[in-house]
Amino acid sequence: MKSLKNTISSFIILSIATVSILVGVIAMLNFYDMKINSVEHTQKQFLKQVDFEAIKLIQKIESVASHIARKNNITNESLKDIVTLNSDISSIFVLNKEGILKKFYSKQVDNIYVGFDYSNKDFFKDIKNSSFSWSNVFLSSVNNTPSISYSLKYENRVIVIELKLDELTQFVTRFKNSDGTHMIRMVDKNGVFIFNPDSKKLVNQRFNIKNSLVYDELIKDKAMFKIRSFYNIKRDVKNIGMYTKVKKTGWIIIIRENHETLIRSLEKILILIFLIIVLFILFALYFVFKIFNKIFFELDYLQQRAKDISNGDYTKTLKQSKFKEVSGLINSFDKMKKQIKKREKNLKASRDSFEYLLNSTMEAIVLHDTKKIYDVNDVTLKLLKIKNKEDILGKSPFVYISDSSYEKVAKNFQKNTTPYELELKDTKGETFTALGQGKFIVLNQKRLKISCFIDITELKNKDKLISQQAKMVSMGEMIGNIAHQWRQPLSSISTAASGLKVEKELEILDDESLENALNMIIKNTQYLSKTIDDFRNFFKVDKQIEIIDVNDVMKKALKLLESSFKDHGIEVVMNFSKNMTINGFSNELAQAFINIINNSKDALKLNNIERKLIVIDTYISKNSVVIIIKDNAGGISKEVKPKIFEPYFTTKHQTQGTGIGLYMTHQIIVDHMNGNIQVENVKFKYEKIEYKGCEFKISFDYIENT
């Protein structure tokens, strides 16, 4: 598990370092941009100044040429004065319209004579089609050096002024970079150097920059006064700079600075920024960790107090903190400690009460899963005759299940169960009958089952007694039914015997009469014998469950009650469906039917109903066999209905009922045969007349008889 302190420390260090580095990088980039912008601004101003000086020079030269042209009688002395006064002028030539030199003055006159023909010179050719012309760089015939000239045609004369550019050169050479190199270079409109203070060799060679990267990277198709990086002519030095053009002459003025020198000038500042960032990070980390350690000291203190509380120590008091937020946390923690102490006390009291209640119940309670037992109450120990709880914990719950119930319990083990009977065995191997049920719960992220058991051995014995009492009651009722069914056959036998005796005494007995009388006696005695067999079968105990037809069982029950129905004028209506087969005990089910029908019969007698009806329906619904038994005795009251299946509950006089008939019916249908029984007050129609009465609805699982 990660440490919060280490995580926060790493986060703070990373955050401060990242932010500081980002700020430093941004500051460096901004400073670099500021420096570039400053260089750009400076170069632009210098470039404008040089451009201004060049224009001023051009205007001055043009003015001088105009002055000479307007004078008709210009002398060589006048030309000398002009050249002497203007340091940028090296020579002045006055030519006729054919290009022949008429007058001149030059600071170097070794190779110049009146009468020289200049008609083949470029500066003379250029003037033929215009009134004035500024030449490109050419090799001067005066001193064999690269020169620039201005030509002015006036009337029949051509004035040619060759430039030395001393003043402009002096002005330009004042602009130097930090490394001592000159900033300004100038080329003509064709790209040939006019001057380059750092490399006069290129000027003398009349080097054309259009053949270099300087032109491609700085000038070609590029806007003026925009700073750019470019390599020098030798391609070994990277420069930054810009250019502009002199409009009238097309001269290109270039300003540049060594990029590496510029970067070196920034190094000290960048190092200073880096040191400031490092110092800031160190100071920030120092102060942050100083505060951070104070806060974590408080948190460590709270953590230790939390450990004390988790160990059950509530005696130590909590110190207040210098920090408002931590003090609030400490106050909340102290309040939480008091609440935990209070709740723990209440929880202990609740646990003690729960354990007391758990051990005071009648049920044995077991907490378990499929493999072992986790906890039991004291009743379980007593029920299974175990001395210590440790002797049962961890054992398999199946150890205490009887072999006869093993399969049933295993089937119910994986589901929530309603109460069912099973056989348990204690540590001495003695078995007993119990009523059990179980529900699943989730405890500590485990799916466990709580099973409850209660010893019902005494209840089973009591049920057997009740069952015996019910059977005795049924036997009493059956004896009454036997008396009803035997009365007519016995009367017929008595009449036949008396008739034979009288006829014998009167000596009128013949063979035919004797045979008829004897046949009647035999028939009635056979009927009496069959009746005895029916009642004997009714009271025979069913030992094995079997597939039975509900209709056959119902008919057997109705046959036993047939004479009683006749005596009390009860009409039985039967609506039976076919193949109503279930798994069950025939005689027990017949007894249950008789108990329900007797209950309806007694209600009809008690309420003195004029037309006494008992309607019996059987049908199959949703894979269940359903039996409906209803009467028209008016129904039962709301107070009686919830108690109708309780033992010894009866609405009849003590001399008329025991209150165990319907209880035994419920036991037979629900417990013995896994069926269901419900009772409701209903209204129904029979032969277009509406009746009101009580309805018993019985259902069993349908079993197909193969």
Automatic annotation (TrEMBL):
Its main location: membrane. GO terms for cellular component: plasma membrane. Keywords: ATP-binding, Cell membrane, Kinase, Membrane, Nucleotide-binding, Phosphoprotein, Transferase, Transmembrane, Transmembrane helix, Two-component regulatory system. The keyword Cell membrane applies. Residues 481-704 form the Histidine kinase domain. It comes from the Bacteria. It is an enzyme of class 2 (transferase). Its EC number is 2.7.13.3. Coiled coil: none annotated. CDD domains: HisKA (cd00082), PDC2_HK_sensor (cd18774). It is a multi-pass membrane protein. The chain crosses the membrane at residues 12-32, 269-289. PROSITE patterns: HIS_KIN (PS50109). Gene3D superfamilies: 1.10.287.130, 6.10.340.10, Histidine kinase-like ATPase, C-terminal domain, PAS domain. This is histidine kinase. It comes from Malaciobacter halophilus.
